[in-house]
Input
Amino acid sequence: MPASIPLAFTPAVGEHAFTAQQRTLLALAHELGRDKFAARAAQWDEQASFPFANYEDLRAAGLLKLCVPESHGGLGADYPTYMMVAAEIGRFCGATALTYNMHVSSTLWTGVLADGVPMSETQRAEHERRRELHFARVVRDGAVYAQPFSEGSAAAAGRAPFGTTARKVEGGWRVNGRKIFASLSGAADYYGVLCTEDKGDEKPDARDTLYLAVPATSPGFGISGDWNPLGMRGTVSRNLSFADVFVSDDEQLMPRGVYWKGAQTWPAMFFTLAPTYLGIANAAYDFTVSYLRGEVPGEPPVKRRMYPTKQIAVAQMRIQLEQMRSIFLRAVLEAGPNPSKDQRMRLYAAHYTVMEGANDLARLAIRTCGGQSMMKHLPLERLYRDSRCGSLMLPWTAELVLDRMGRETLYESGERDE
Ligand SMILES: Cc1cc2nc3c(=O)[nH]c(=O)nc-3n(C[C@H](O)[C@H](O)[C@H](O)COP(=O)(O)OP(=O)(O)OC[C@H]3O[C@@H](n4cnc5c(N)ncnc54)[C@H](O)[C@@H]3O)c2cc1C
Output
């Protein structure tokens, strides 16, 4: 699609000088979301069931291989393009966008992130060989990857080594431990697990973090617990257990020690949780405009737009949405390895603004549209519940972002008070 032809809609990330590939992908995501995902969203929410039908559509559209490099048969989308597409999906189904993030991140981390992290020649060659297998599963088999990091400890916050361990054995690793909040549990073909290398010295070290793909069919691998949360119910984020699970050496998604370096080098990788919530903020705004205009399909054509207080609320929502889009897009476009201090601060600020702002917009939407708008047959109350979940996610919960920003503003690296 030529870059000069405008899109027929304003993307969730706002207007921008998109590339031809970005326009094509945004149009595809918008069409899928509007025509397929939006109508199904209530079903996943009500049943707390995984959006399998949406994944069939994503697979058929080639979007599961969005960020697999072209040289490996993927669409070769870069980080900004992923962030734009994910926000567009989030506009129509939050649970699909959030789980899609876990899947796509596993290709971004092994792809563009790993490319920006220093490695020895041997490590680079090993990584090139192993990621070929992993990319082929996505491209050839349409495989889906999960990203279970959380354990209920300080590990996912980046403040302690992961309690899940991997011990080196002949031909691979033995994995033991437990994860909580594993989105795509029961739906993924592979679980990209972060664990600490067990060197037998009882001195676990975060620098020894390993990133391993555990096939869903592995003996010793289990899924347990129920999933009945406030929002994001279609993510089906249950517990995982690993009892002496053997995984072969080729399941290493990054060479030993590289994940830890990657997390220091490429902080914007943690920002990939945000587009889902920018999408939800857009959905709350879009709904409010059509509700106040009396244009919501299936609802009585009652107009509420003539009241000045509602006009003011819509103006406030639009101001906040424009602020979210602007800082989001700026942070996305400047993301890369080794950001400057200002870029890092902007990244934290963008994450906080989107995660807290999405819930703010959803709250304002319900207040402004009024009592009838929060009925379960309309999407607004789901958007409100889904939007609350963003700033709970580690490592950048709203609290931890404030914590980092305050500390990193007042202390330069290595500075201490006596
Ligand atoms: C819808 C949804 C889907 C999710 N999907 C995934 C997934 O696919 N993969 C995944 O890995 N995780 C996922 N998560 C989990 C998420 O990233 C967090 O790990 C989880 O929400 C933390 O819950 P908690 O009760 O353990 O948090 P908390 O208890 O708040 O945090 C856990 C630990 O982090 C440290 N910590 C937290 N806050 C602070 C603070 N302010 N100061 C200092 N230390 C602090 C503490 O050690 C604390 O015990 C998902 C969460 C949600 C809501």
